[in-house]
Each structure stands twice: as C-alpha cells, then as structure tokens.
# Entry
Amino acid sequence: MKKRIAAAAAGAVVLALGLAACSGTSSSGTGGKVELSVWTGFTGGDRPGYAQIVKNFNASHPDIHVTMTVQPWDTIGQKLPSAWLTGQGPDIAAPSPDPNAIAQYVKTNSVLPITLTGDGDSKINVDKLAPGTVKEFTYGGKLYAIPANFASLSLYYNKKMFVAAGIDGPPTTVAEFADDAKKLTIDGGTTQSGLVLADNQTIQMWPILQWLEGGDIVDSNNCSAVQTAASQKGLKIWGDLVAKDGISPVGLTGAQADSLFSAGKAAMEINGPWAAPGYKSAGIDLGIAAVPTGVDGAVTLGAIAPLAISAKTKHPQEAQEFLAYWTSKSVQKTFSTTTGFPPLRTDLADDATLKADPVVSVFAAQVPDARLYLPKVPNATQVDSDAYTTMIGQITRGTDVATATATAQAAINKLTGCTTK
Amino acid sequence: MSASTITGARTASAGRAPASPRRRTRWSPGLLFLAPSLLILGVFVLWPIAQSFYYSLFDWTIGANSQKWLGLGNYVALTQDPHFWNALGVTMVYTVITVVLLVVLGFLVALALQGEGLITRIVRSALFFPTIVSLVSIGLVWKFLLDPQIGLVGGLFDLIGAKPIAFLTDPSLALPSLIFVGVWKSVGFAMIIFVGGLKAVPAERYEAARLDGTSRAQSVWFITLPSIRPTLLFATLILTIQSLQLFDLVYVMTGGGPLFATDSLVNLLYRSGFVDYKTGYAAAISWVLFAIVMIISGIQLRLFRYDDVD
# Structure
C-alpha cells in the first residue's frame, strides 16, 4: 500500500512539474526583471536593424529584458493563433507582413488594445505616425497594433546594364518604363530580363503597374475594379510586355525575382528597402530611383507589418513601453539610417540626416504617394491568392485580358461581399 | 492443441471454491506497461482526430467566443468549391501515376539488383540514398536545379543552344515535374521492399520451373509475381497513402501553383487552415482525405485478396 501511495505521489509530482513547464512563456525573471518575448519574421537585410532596437532597449531599460525570436512568416502564421489563445505565445509579435492579418486576431480577442498613447518618448505618439498606418490597425475605435515598419517600394536598376543598352538613367514616366524594359531585354529574356516581376509569394508589384496606368483592384466599396477600361488597358500593356516581349519570366516568386536581379540576370526590379543590402553585397552596380510617374501622378505601393501585443501577456505596461520605444523619434531615425527604411514618423520627414542618405531619401520621398494593397478589404488574403494572383498568372501566360478580368471580377466580388455591381 | 490446453486449464480450476463476485480484478502487468503508450496515443492522436471531426461540423474560428454550427455545411461547401475538385484531381493524378511508376520501376530495379555483388550493393545504396533525405531538402534542391534562369538544367539547355524550359512555372509541366521528383525520391524505397520480397521466394520454385523449361519472363510472371503478392500489396498500400498525402514537394517547389496546377488536397487543407484560418473547412477536407485513403486502401486489400490461392 505504501508503495502505491509513493508511486501515486511521484506521479503527481511529475504531472505537476510537466504542467508547470507548459505554463506561459511570459514571466518575471530573477531579481524582478520583466522578461518579454517577441516573435517576428524579419529575416531579410533589415534584420540587423530590428536586432539593434532590441539591444538598445535592453541596455536602456534595466528592469525589462526583451528576447526577439526571428522565424519565417509561415511558421509564425501556423503557431501564433493557437499560441496566443492558450497563453503560450510571445508577449509581442509581428503576426504577418500582411497588415490585414491583424483583423483575425482582433476577431478572436487575441490582441491587446493599445492605450499607452500620447506625447513624449515614454508613450506611443499616435499623432506622429503616418496616418494611414494608424487607420489600418484601428478597429472599432481601438488601436490594436503599431506599424513595425513602413516601406515604400522603389525601382532598383542595374547601372551597368543601362549603360550597355545606351540608356542614360532610370525611367521617370510609365511610358519610358515600358520602353526601357523592352530595350533592356536580351534574347527574349533568355539572356537578360528587362524587369523582373514577381506575382506570387511576394509583396505585390503588379498593383503598382495598374495604378501607374490609372487602374485599380477594388474600389471604395470593396467591389472589383480590375474590369474597368483603365485597369484593362494597363493589364494589357504590361501583360503583353511579359507574355509577348519576354521582359520578365512568368510566374516568379519574390525570392526568385530577387535572385535573378542579384545574379545580374535582370536590369530592373521593384522592391522594398530590405533588398538593398543583399544587392550591394552581390556586387550589383546598383541604382535606386523612385517608381516612374503614372498617368495620374506619382504612386507606389506601401507595405506595413503590424506589431501587436498578446491579450494574455502578463506585462501589458512593459510591452507597451517597448512599442513606445520602438516608435520613438530617435529610435526610428537610427533604424532608418541602418536599414534604409523610411521613418514611421511624420516629424522625421524633413530630417537633414535622413534626407542626405542616398537610400533612405528615395524611399522616404515616396511615402506620401504610397498606397496600401487591399487595405481592410474583407478576405483580402483570398482576394490576393484566389483572384488577383490567378488573374495576373493567366494574363502573363497569354489569356485574353477581358476573359481573365471577368473571372477575377466575379471572384473578387464574391469574396469581398460586394453586391452593388 | 490450443483447445486441449484450455480444457486442461478449466479442469485444473474446477476443484476450487466458487470465486466471489466481488473479487477484485487483477490488472495484467502487460496492460500497465501499455498504459503510457495508450495514454499518449489517446491524448495526442485519437482525441485530436475525434476533435477535428467535431470542428468540421462548425464554421470554426480558433479562439472565437462562439462557433457557428453548420452540420454538414462544410462538406456541402466542399462539393461546390472548384478549388477542392481541382485539388482532388491533382492529388489523384499524382497518386495514380506515381504509384504505378514506383511499383513497376521498383520491381524491375529490384529484379536487376537482387544479387549480393559489390557493384550491385553500391548501386542499390545509391538508389536508396534519396529515400533517407527529407522531402523538403529534395524539393529545394530540385527547385534550384530546374530553375530555367539560374538552375543546372536551364544551364544545360543553354549549353546546347535550346531555350530553357520553365518546368515549375508552366502549368502543363509543373505536375509532371513533381511526379518526376516524387518517383526519383521513392524508387529506392520501393526497390528495397521488393528486394526483400524477392529474397523470400524459395529457390526450389525456380529450380522446378527451370527443369520444366520455363523462360526468364515466364518465371517472373508465373512464379515471382504470385509469390510476392503480399509484398506488392504492402508496397502499393504504403506508396498510395504516402502519395495521397502530397504536400512537402508542393509547398517547397510550387506553393500549389502555377494557377493551382499542383494544388494538392493537403496543400488546400494547409491554406484553408493556416492562411485563411478556416479551421472547420480545413477539418472537413482532412476527413474527406481520410475517407478517400480508407476507401482506396480497402479496394486494394480486396483486389489483392481476390483469387488468393492460399
């Protein structure tokens, strides 16, 4: 009998230890130091910039220690929803590079409404953040995330290839852009592509081409706009340039497009600031210019990754302090000069140091003209994968634009719930 | 033999006093040893399986305060979803072609390499090598090799003056390319199974056949194939189940594209569950796949048992 009691007690101890090991990751460390964990998917050339923010925060906040774990976005997408719900997840996370992803976490009450807002470095200066970014993360009047970054896309070009093709400088208008892409294509794209255009597993480049030609994807009612005359015209021009003139290989992922530009097999690419360090280290004679002006003026795509706090964090105050530090003026200035990203804050727009930086200045100058891709559009992820990417894939493989846009229109309207058209 | 043993045991206990109805049951030590495994199996396998069926009856959103009951709504929605039918078609085409190729090639290679010479062993090991490498690694390597711009295969085309072929971005070539890689990876596995089966065939059967003047082809057809029927069944079942679960290669090499040409059922399940967060819908896909695996496995078992001379 005694043996059985001893065995049962041992079992209970093992079980208790096991359960204790499974409890939340957020904890107060020894000596009263608050431990905060952060998950992000920033694996690109901008990674050191985020690591520097964390390092400097830890150095300047003796009572808080932040540990940032960087993992692929896919992995975060798989683990975070259940991790946050069960209280096992990180205190803070960038759930996805897609700003619309935050809506899902708001819906499941997984993210904490941010309240530490106001003036001064110890608070999140919401009124100093780019207005579009705040609106993107506000649901029901509450702010649920801050932008971890805000990137505008620019035109990367290979200066050596431009010289070889007898072109003086980067294109400044959409007509020159199309013309240069053709001139820079050698052997129908077999030897050299004029412009690499990724259409899947990437931050979208095709919306920029549509916007440049006066077209769009959805209108203000979230109804399809791909079938409008302006959209069809733009899709026809650039679709033919790919399908008939071979300016870009078809069906590239973002990583493949980057590889081609890095390998000196493409003359131009539209990309964000995170790509610059890789291209430089690959030895490309690199030029960075603003995206050429479209028929309705300057336009480019803006990309924001959200940074949100778990609703189950044990340290909501400290977590918000970290976000306040992340978005503070001095930190953003350092981050911009380190990574080439435009600053998140409007009060850094005229900063002399950033204006003098050859990379930051190009990206920062385009921020006022940057448009978000499918902002707050219902089922935006599926609109992208099932309708938009499919439509681009069809057009670049030779499908008639009218047919492809008609199919996409039906799919988009069904997904967004548009009923007015 | 066993019947007499039981009888003997009954006889031996016949002289005892009748057992008390309240006598405590003695736990078999075997059951106690099994308990941890059964517990883990129950908690981490059986319970989640049952739970996934429960989820499939709801418009389940992880963490939502309330879940909307749909009954069989997700299953009905599947029948109206063109992506589901496309994924089912992709999975079936991949499975049928891959399994047929693996069984035929695996068997032929096993016939050729069943000896024990040094060269034979080396070739067998070389063929088996891809089996031990993870599908993800193999997918990444082949994705790079098949890249028309910077891959080795593209380079070879370039060398002979031909235009490189976009194997993974051409909708008509992407699935055949995945089938090729899948067969390349698993043919060694099929071969090893068949080599095992071939070695178990008694040599006397071949000697008797040789005395009767049968040709090599007749020996294979009339002696080898019937003799390794259990091996054939095992190989076909394992390879079919493995192929129906096509995901790793798709995820790494094509992401389900181009234009959904390689979008398998498990890839659709993954997308529904972990990208679109439609948990109930994803659970319904998993149960449909489970049903398909069960039905196909049942048919295979039935077919192989049919006409069994034993």
